[in-house]
Amino acid sequence: MQNLTISLIQTELHWQQPALNRAMLAGKMAPLAGKTDLVILPEMFSSGFSMAPEQVAEPADGPSLQWLQQQAEQLQAAITGSLAIETEAGYVNRLFFVSPTGDVQYYDKCHLFRMGDEHSHYQSGQVRQLFHYRGWRILPLICYDLRFPVFSRNQNDYDLLICVANWPAPRRHPWRTLLQARAIENLCYVAGVNRVGTDGNGLAYSGDSMLVDFKGEPQLDAEAGQSFVASQTLLLDKLQQFREGFPAHLDADPFSLNSL
Questions:
Q1: Do the Cβ atoms of 92 and 109 come closer than 8 Å?
Q2: Residue range 142-156: average pLDDT?
Q3: pLDDT higher at 257 or 103
Q4: Strands 210-212 and 218-221
Q5: pLDDT at residue 52 tops 90
Q6: Residue 143 known to be catalytic
Q7: How far from chain centre, in Å, is Cα 2?
Q8: Active-site residue 215, yes or no?
Q9: In the predicted model, what is the mean pLDDT of residues 126-140?
């Protein structure tokens, strides 16, 4: 079975300053070269959760995607995180998943955070995506997506759920609880990566990034409010053994996402 070493990067972000964020993140990732398979960055890692896409959005093949491809090649690891992207239809909050060979997969955030007016500035994605990488099936989510269990229902089609976020500190309890709930109900690993610090709107972030196993037990859970880089190896055979011994998915209620 192919194990997967993943690295979570929880950090402060420079408000609406992509070049500074890219340089800062490159420094944090450099020691991971040859030591990890997948690096996970926060939501809108180049700008923070900005509702000014006309100022921070890039074209799909812009400098931040090119930077992701360069970094993935140097690290010999995949990298994922989201960016504000300008498309012909409008702005989207797009998660890129870039392999060491430069191949790009992406997911556009489907559930836009109306309490932050995201739906007034960005277009909603219309497709639930699955990524395939080194024998693993991966479901990507972005922040607010985590609150909707039907959307992330595991139909025996993924092994790892990744959620990148800018999830403010006042709602840290739901963030932590939902990460564990998604792991338990979907019999999968869950990696949630949030930011820390304070953004340009004065919102504070406690981080609480976690790696949770298929039993809902935290495997990585650093002190709140602190920047960190942490890695852990996921064991696919252990996941499959647990699913075989506790096949709750066989009794799941059937339904489909007809609107997508």
A1: yes
A2: 96
A3: 103
A4: antiparallel
A5: yes
A6: yes
A7: 21
A8: no
A9: 97
* Tens of pLDDT, residues 162-181: 999 999 999 999 999 999 99
3 state SS for the chain: CCCEEEEEEECCCCCCCHHHHHHHHHHHHHHHCCCCCEEECCCCCCCCCCCCHHHHCEECCCHHHHHHHHHHHHHCCEEEEEEEEEECCEEEEEEEEECCCCCEEEEECCCCCHHHCHHHCCCCCCCCCCEEECCEEEEEEEHHHHHCCCCCCCCCCCCEEEEECCCCHHHHHHHHHHHHHHHHHHCCEEEEECCEEECCCCCEEECCCEEECCCCCEEEECCCCCCEEEEEEECHHHHHHHHHHCCHHHHCCCCCCCCC
> Is the predicted pLDDT of residue 84 greater than 90, yes or no?
yes
Residue 47 CA, distance from chain mean position = 16
Selecting among 58, 109, 110, 188, the annotated active-site residue is 109
Which is the catalytic residue, given 58, 110, 143, 188? 143
Q: Please say if 188 is a catalytic residue.
A: no
Residue ranges and CATH numbers for the domains of the chain are 4-249 (3.60.110.10)
Strand 160-164 with 189-193, pairing? parallel
Query: Mean pLDDT over all residues of the chain?
Result: 96
